[in-house]
Structure prediction request, 584 residues.
Amino acid sequence: MNKMFKKKSFIFKNLSLSITLIVLIGLLITAASFLLLTNTLKSETTQEASSLASKWGKKLDLALVEEAAQSNDYSTPSQQELTKSFDTISEYNPKVAQAYIFSTELIDGNQTPIVSVPSHLVEPLKSEGLNPGDPYPQPKHIVKGIQNMLSEGKMVSTSIYQDDIGTWITELYPLKNREGKIYAYFGVDLDASMVAEGQSQIIKTSLSILLPGLLIAIILQIFMTRRSFKPLNELMSGLTEVSSGNFNLQLKHTGDDELGTINKRFNEMVTDIKTMVLKVKASSDNIKHSSQMLAETASSTDSKSLKIADVTENMSSAAKTQEESISNTSIAIEEVAKAIQSIAYNSSEVSAASQHMNKITIDGNESVKTLARQMDKISERFSLTTKSVAALKERSMEIDKLLGIITGIADQTNLLALNAAIEAARAGEAGKGFSVVASEVRKLAEESNQSARVISELVKEIQTETQNTVSHVEIGNTEISKGIEYVNLTGSLFHQIQENSNEVSANILDVSASSQQISAGTEEITATAEDLKHSAVQNSDFAGEISKIAGENQESVSQLRKSSEGLNNLADELEGLVKTFKTS
Prediction:
């Protein structure tokens, strides 16, 4: 909380302190008024209670009180007389709730014996079994009042207290016997609700006056504070702008008070800083321009010196390489001459071999053509076979149909033979010979039917094999077609090989002729290579000296470039700092 308050603005802190002080003063005034009124009401209530207790206490008949203290029944004449007196007190004094007499003897620290009570308390006490002389528990403030009365020997008042019925104050008037000893007290319970009502009233009145007053005071304080601190707010805004680099501002609130004077000094300071920044900016521009020119010159010189160093180093390296290359070339030329002679000899051999390969290629091409023609004939034979197998399949299907017809005829014949046997049996001896014939016909029909079934099974097997044969023949046709394609492709390849071999033979003859010419030129190249070798040695020494001088020059230029880059960086930093300030 403390950290959060520290982060708040000065105006907020000032307003918070002023408002807090105003509220505290208002609360102190309200508290003082509350205490003053409370004390006044308590004093008046206490005086009233003391006056009533003293007035009626002096009227009590002490002999009658002593007689009532000796009785233990509310119906005795002395009790009746005192009860009547207590009722009279309440009747003529509406603030008195009840008057009563109790003994001052404290039993168990908080109980005192009953002496006499008003009529409205008799029945409640009787219902609880309490009669005159019985101890009755007293609240703490009564016990304390009894103790104070016994110690001081005079009438005392209790503090204002509250119970379930209301707010009260009790006055204890001491009753003394003939020896002057206090043996009982006359108590008067007086209504003290006016004290609580007065306290509530003073609070309401104080708040009704205090709150509007505080609100008005706070509003005035806020208005005056904001008006007084307006130059300070403008100064804070100006400081924020200046801290961000903006010097194009002038504060308006420059009065004759302290804050106005501060704003005037701030305007003068901003003007001086703006002038200084403009001068620094002009100087930084000049420095940057000069450093850029120097950096460009140094960079260009450095780049050129690097190129010169690279070129000279490459020249030196190339010269050495050239010297070595020329030496190696001289040796290589001799080897080339030998190789060319070998190439010429090998070219003749290769030419003879290529002519032989060409002849073999022609023979292979003729063989492939013969194979292609034979494959065509095989394909035609397979086509005829396929047609024959298909016809065989159709004939087997027709045989199957005929077997069905034969089977049907055999079944009908068997049925007719059965009917003939039945009729022969009916004819008796006359039809006995016909019965034998019918039996033979029936056997012949059954055998025909069985044979037809066997033939049908064989035909089905033939059909199955025929179908398989058709499938295999179709596969063979497919493979023969692929074979014909491969044979044709092989023939095409042989034709290409023949053409290529002819070209190779022609090229080899050309190579053989060219190698003879190259062999003659290598002798001249060998002589020239010796001269180049001598010149390369001289060039290598001269390039080494140039490379050394270029390296020394490049180091100097690199140092100059680094210095110019450092100056350019400083100029950039200075320009960056100046750009953060707004001066126009």
Notes: The beta strands are 96-103, 111-116, 135-137, 156-157, 161-162, 167-176, 182-191.
